[in-house]
Amino acid sequence: MNTTIDQSLLDQITQAARLGGAIALDYFRPGQKTSARIDSKEGGSPVTEADHAVDAFLAQELGRALPGAGWLSEETIDNPLRLSRDLVFVVDPIDGTRAFMSGDARWAVCVALVERGRPVAGVVHLPAMGQTFVAQRGGGAFRNNERIAVSSRASLSGGAIAGPGLMLKELAATGMEFRAEPRIPSLAYRFVRVAEGSLDAGLASTNACDWDIAAADIILQEAGGGLTDPHGLSPTYNRPATRHGLLGAAPGQLRDELTAILRRSLGRAGQT
Question: Does the 7-146 domain belong in CATH 3.30.70.890?
Answer without folding.
Answer: no
